[in-house]
Write a structure and sequence with these properties.
Order of helices and strands: HHHEHHEEH
CATH topology: Arc Repressor Mutant, subunit A
Number of helices: 6
Protein name: ArsR family transcriptional regulator
Distance between the termini: 42 Å
CATH superfamily: Winged helix-like DNA-binding domain superfamily/Winged helix DNA-binding domain
Radius of gyration: 22 Å
InterPro entries: ArsR-like_HTH, HTH_ArsR_DNA-bd_dom, WH-like_DNA-bd_sf, WH_DNA-bd_sf
GO molecular function, one term: DNA-binding transcription factor activity
CATH class: Mainly Alpha
Helix content: 55-70%
Largest sheet: 3 strands, antiparallel
Strand content: 5-15%
Strand order of the largest sheet: 1-3-2
Organism: Sinomonas atrocyanea
Length: 121
């Protein structure tokens, strides 16, 4: 299956961590901000009404999914996006899209085949 071939570069656990991390709107927004440019966790926390600790936990989930990395600079923890991990997730989604497009095309082919006249009458 096409998806299996594409997914080989990611383990099931990695896929679960990536899509589990992306399942939350706040984490997707943090990732979006990190993709625009590096951000300190403090700067990220300024964008949300939740506590600094809550934002830090969201960043930790993204970090476990390898979607971001953190670098300590003095007292700040700087968050960077990880474009390679994002590309791997995108390739997996592309593989699912290809699989479903192929299935839909085959269903279309079957439905467009002329039907044989009924021989029973």
């Amino acid at each position: 299956m096409v998806v299996d071939q594409q997914a080989r570069e990611l383990t099931d656990d990695e896929i679960d961590r990536i899509f589990g991390a992306l399942a939350d709107a706040t984490r997707r927004d943090i990732l979006r901000l990190a993709m625009v440019g590096e951000q300190s966790v403090s700067a990220l926390a300024g964008n949300y009404t939740m506590s600094f600790a809550a934002v830090q936990k969201h960043v930790a989930v993204l970090e476990r999914a390898l979607l971001v990395t953190k670098e300590r600079r003095g007292r700040e923890q700087i968050v960077h996006s990880n474009p390679a991990a994002i590309r791997r997730a995108a390739r997996l989604l592309d593989a699912y899209e290809e699989l479903w497009r192929d299935r839909i095309a085959r269903i279309g082919d079957i439905l467009s085949e002329p039907t044989a006249p009924d021989q029973g009458d």
